[in-house]
UniProtKB/TrEMBL annotation:
Catalytic activity: 3-deoxy-alpha-D-manno-2-octulosonate-8-phosphate + H2O = 3-deoxy-alpha-D-manno-oct-2-ulosonate + phosphate
Gene Ontology molecular function, alphabetical: 3-deoxy-manno-octulosonate-8-phosphatase activity; metal ion binding; N-acylneuraminate cytidylyltransferase activity
Organism annotation: Kineobactrum sediminis
This protein's name: 3-deoxy-D-manno-octulosonate 8-phosphate phosphatase KdsC
UniProt cross-references to InterPro entries, sorted A to Z: CMP-NeuNAc_synthase, HAD-like_sf, HAD-SF_hydro_IIIA, HAD_sf, KdsC_fam
Length: 178
């Protein structure tokens, strides 16, 4: 990536007002565990949560768009103050467009992070398309930026830090912990 490419991504990052996240394969490792009584369990990374909180503190709204339904997603979103959770939507780009209309945003003001083919159209349409390290090849190739971490292993935290650094906000937020 050239210096000009990096500069272009930083300029685009400064325009981001909303980060939309997929769940399975992004906020989780993509695995689903069923208990003996049939309950579905998911593992979320706490570091991702801190990254989301820091991004929100910097004025970027975070939303979730997922193709499945899960009570754990609602619970995790509530813990993190994520106000918009869209579940059961296979067409993620349509869901994102509807969210943009609600929030009076343009797609260019959005970032979307995904890992698999249902995320591809949204990744291509937004101002910044983000992928996780273990995303399918089509997503990695379409994304403007990919994490070094796999989904569920800090990829969202890495993306949040990258966005905050690109926007020139990371140092101030990090200093709040010193």
């Amino acid at each position: 990536m050239t210096d000009k490419d990096v500069e272009n991504l930083q300029l685009r990052a400064r325009e981001i007002r909303l980060l939309a996240l997929d769940v399975d394969g992004v906020l989780t490792d993509g695995g689903v565990i069923y208990s003996s009584d049939g309950a579905e369990l998911k593992i979320f990374n706490i570091k991702d949560g801190i990254g989301i909180r820091l991004l929100q503190k910097a004025g970027v709204e975070v939303a979730i768009i997922t193709g499945r339904h899960s009570e754990m997603v609602d619970r995790r979103a509530a813990e993190l103050g994520i106000g918009k959770v869209i579940q059961g939507r296979a067409d993620k780009l349509t869901a994102l467009r509807e969210l943009c209309l609600e929030r009076d945003l343009q797609l260019a003001q959005c970032a979307y992070m995904g890992d698999d083919l249902p995320d591809l159209a949204a990744i291509k349409a937004v101002g910044l398309g983000l992928g996780v390290a273990d995303a399918v090849a089509a997503v990695r190739n379409a994304a403007d930026w990919c994490s070094l971490a796999n989904g569920g292993a800090g990829a969202v935290r890495e993306a949040c830090e990258w966005l905050l650094n690109a926007r020139g906000q990371w140092a101030e937020l990090e200093a709040g912990y010193q």
